[in-house]
Amino acid sequence: xxxxxxxxxxxxxxxxxxxxxxxxxxxxxxxAMKGDLAKSLANIARxxxxxxxxxxxxxxxxxxxxxxxDLNYQEQEAIDCIKNSVIPLxxxxxxxxxxxxxxxxxxxxLNSELVNLRYNVIDQKRLIDFNSLDYQRLxxxxxxxxxxxxxxxxxxxxxxxxRAFLQGCWSEQRLCSRxxxxxxxxxRNLNDAVHHALLSRDDKLCNEILAGAIAVRSSDIIRxxxxxxxxxxxxxxxxxxxxxxxxxxxxxIPDDIIPVVGQxxxxxxxxxxxxxxxxxxxxxxxxxISAIGHRLPSIxxxxxxxxxxxHTAFREVIPEGxxxxxxxxxxxxxxxxxxxxxxxxxxxxxxQVVELLCSRSNxxxxxxxxxxxxxxxxxxxxxxxxxxxxxxxxxGKPIHIALVQVAQNFDKEDVIDAQQIHQLSIGVxxxxxxxxxxxxxxxxxxxxxxxxxxxxxxKSDGTLYVHAxxxxxxxxxxxxxxxxxxxALCNLVxxxxxxxxxxxxxxxxxxxLLVVLVQFKDVMFGELRKRTLTTLRQIVSCSDSESNHFxxxxxxxxxxxxxxxxxxxPVNVKAVAIVAIASIASTMKTFPVAISLIIQNAIxxxxxxxxxxxxxxxxxxxxxxxxxxLGLLVGLRDPDDNAASYAFGAISDQIEWKLSxxxxxxxxMAVSLAQQTGAxxxxxxxxxxxxxxxxxxxxxxxxxxRTIETALKCDTSYLVRSVFQE
Length: 726
Prior knowledge:
Blueprint: H1 3-8, H2 19-33, H3 37-50, H4 55-71, H5 75-86, H6 95-106, H7 112-127, H8 135-145, H9 154-167, H10 170-186, H11 190-200, H12 203-216, H13 219-232, H14 236-248, H15 258-266, H16 279-292, H17 298-310, H18 312-315, H19 325-337, H20 343-359, H21 366-379, H22 382-392, H23 401-405, H24 418-433, E1 436-439, E2 451-459, E3 462-469, H25 472-479, H26 486-500, H27 507-517, H28 526-541, H29 553-558, H30 570-585, H31 593-603, H32 608-617, H33 626-635, H34 641-652, H35 661-675, H36 680-693, H37 702-713, H38 718-721
Antiparallel strand pairs: 1-3, 2-3
Helix pairs in contact: 2-3, 2-4, 3-4, 4-5, 6-7, 9-10, 10-11, 11-12, 11-13, 13-14, 14-16, 15-16, 15-17, 16-19, 17-19, 19-21, 20-21, 20-22, 21-22, 24-26, 26-27, 26-28, 27-30, 28-30, 30-31, 30-32, 31-32, 31-33, 32-34, 34-36, 35-36, 35-37
């Protein structure tokens, strides 16, 4: 112990508690973490009766009870426990113990009273020169852990962890758990690293650990992590953290324990929101169900669907303008569960979702509900499909703009005539022009449909308003682009291009506009196509100049502003422009040489996002040059895993390209190297490319191909194995 710790050790709360009681408290905490909270609380009440005469023991038991309530998202019960049972005994406690009690109390809920209490505790600590931990040495340990010097600081961290435990200070225990987790990570003890990250509830650290666990590609490690979560992460705050872990490693979980994991999570799915803070807890449960839904046994999928349809978040009426995140996640989970549901569940689900869409949906969850019905129509029989179609597109009634996009999925494209699309396009053009508005002082900007958020900048003679907008209306017109007159098409495309090059517009808007522009490639001809390609070449060739008024997303993330929005990035705009220019040029009889050079140069760009766009652009080439083929093959071994995935995705579609023997050697070597990496997405794209091209593989390479294919079929990731089951 340090000198300071020795001077205060006798004043630590649990140091003054009987050793037998201390052991019982540890056991009660473990039982609660394993899922038996009610029994633990009952035993705590029994121990209260036994130790009624000892104030310190009663305080220690009350603090344990409050901590368990807090870990179960029962903040008010925790506050009441401390205020009713501990505060009256404060006069009998040492100053250091009183400060720890007040510090724990102040961490329970963000309100003005408890925030003021926290600052008061901090001031009192300074007055009596009391530090809960040896912060100087812990800071040194945290700094040096990043450089691999963990062995010399393990003792320091463990001593402080023990000190925090004896004091009963919750936040300090989480801090030490975080450092212990980092030490376990450096020692490749991923199971304990995840456990301590769970106790610290540090999302960023846990993501780093899980990325390492996935890269190791060991089913035993993943199985150990999951089993430990099931055994110890049953208090709500821990369970929510476990749901995030399951979501991240969903495709790495071995097949044989998927039913166990599914049952564990689905058993909690019935829980309803008890306060606003529980919204994220419910959402994370359904996110984890969504992540593993397509792998669940049919009986578990049916159970999850029944729970979802009976959930308050699904059945309640949400006022327009309000947002229920749980409903969105429930609808997303149902979309994944459809593929393993039986016929009766699909029929019931179709009826319930149609009722939701027609009577209880709002603009926030409408797109997710429409996506769910579109997938239902794909899996359902003709009777269910006709029921959905008749319900969503009743005769003689107006059709919601979101349904216009998916009309063809329900064989209702003819219900929407050319006049309706023409009027819709006029409204879309007017709305596009309102993305950027300069308004004199004293006036208000015109209202903007599908507005996500608004930026403004005061200037000498007025205010510049820029609105980030959605693209539902624009995509709806794009789906029915063949019904547009030539004049309406020109007006719409020209409006898109004007806003795409407007330096005042947000990069997010400009990127979205170019994404939709590609949908019109097969109806653009002559001068319209020529003007569009010229403008796109300007976007591709210009430097990544910044707007004079608004931060890019990267700048916003680096700023200290309390509220930050994703405003886009010029690199993304340039990347989408490269894909768009190649896609539109592919409709010409002869692919322009100048555009081929743009793609070839982009393949060699230093930025991986630009290279990714260039690889994607090669999908549009029917007869690529040798330089582009070679560049794409080199891209299969791109140092950036995401970029390499795009390269594999591009080449997997090129079944008509003529590859030489040397090209096949490079391709198979790249697939073999990708198969050995720790990136599941890259391995999946490599497997997909191998599956699509294997029929054209020269005979002399067939044995090598089969060896690689066998390894991919046995991959630890379901994401990779499933490629050969499609």
